[in-house]
């Protein structure tokens, strides 16, 4: 008969893989380090009750399923997949709304004023980046924020350049170098919140 650590370890590995999460992604959702998750999955440590409750809610399973070797696997569902899909749909709709607004501005200006402000679509790119950054900050991946910030910086510079194209202000692209360097350095920062270390130590003590 398996002990409690082995049972929880097997169930945790199964649930994480079923929902296509890495150890780092699961750790981020639980506000723990991936080192702790790795220990749980190897059966070297046991999550405390609070963490078990978080895991059960995250994967929509009962506590009994997590700790009972003979608990039916039929109770397992994959809410993380559905949640991800919903988040992606909501974020996509929000970004597309920016382009709908840009299209309406273009059409109304062309009909009402007889002008074709094509640069409105150029400015829609950084606006879309801002929307994407907001939603990524809420639901997205940590690494994606750096890519989106880079895209935001260069899209703003490009939009400004195209807006004043007749002046050929190519020097504006030099302005984007320092922010890009800052973003790269920022991406190199290693996240190690004190709360995660404290929780990790608590888990190891309980084990």
Plain-language structure description:
With 207 residues, the chain is mostly helical. The chain is 73% helix and 0% strand. The protein has helices at 4-18, 23-30, 34-42, 49-59, 63-67, 79-112, 119-139, 144-163, 172-175, 177-188, 194-206. Residues 193-207 have low confidence and may be disordered.
Question: Layout of SSEs?
Answer:
Blueprint: H1 4-18, H2 23-30, H3 34-42, H4 49-59, H5 63-67, H6 79-112, H7 119-139, H8 144-163, H9 172-175, H10 177-188, H11 194-206
In short:
The protein has helices spanning 4-18, 23-30, 34-42, 49-59, 63-67, 79-112, 119-139, 144-163, 172-175, 177-188, 194-206. It is mostly helical and 207 residues long. The protein starts with a helix and ends with a helix.
Strand-residue proportion: under 5%
Q: Order of helices and strands, N to C?
A: HHHHHHHHHHH
Q: If helices are DSSP runs of H or I spanning 4 or more residues, what is the number of helices?
A: 11
Low-pLDDT residue intervals, each spanning 5 or more residues: 193-207
The computed structural class is: mainly alpha
Could you list some keywords that capture this structure?
207 residues, mainly alpha
